[in-house]
What we know:
This protein has helices at residues 20-30, 91-99, 108-114; strands at residues 11-16, 34-39, 48-53, 59-65, 80-84, 103-105, 115-119, 125-129. By secondary structure, it is α/β, with parallel strands linked by helices.
Amino acid sequence: MVTLSGAAPHIRIARPSRDLAAAERFWSDGLGLDVLFRASADGPGEHDLLMLGWRDAGWHLELVGGRQLTAEPSPTAEDLLVVYLDAPVDGQLVARLERAGGTLVSGGPYWDRWGVTLADPDGYRLVLSTRGWTNAP
């Protein structure tokens, strides 16, 4: 494991978003991530910013948007954020994610076998995997 000063590094997953409010509904209201930080663009070259994650996790999702967004979201079927549940996928969670703007999609044969895949409002995919991290390939 890579360490810096004895601590494991934190990972940031950064993505553009067309609509930060819609993305927040999906990731926070739907999946249950906490809003860790938000900011509005103050000047030239800046973006509106939304950071989401679980407070004690070693990663967070950073979404940038607003009028000065220079890169439109361009997700592919391989742009996945996988959450390993090590349990069956709760149907109520899937329904909540759909109500929050998610769309059920096929993840392909592997992910359809091992979980449920939803697209967020920008088209990026979230996989809720029934597998545990230790038994994932």
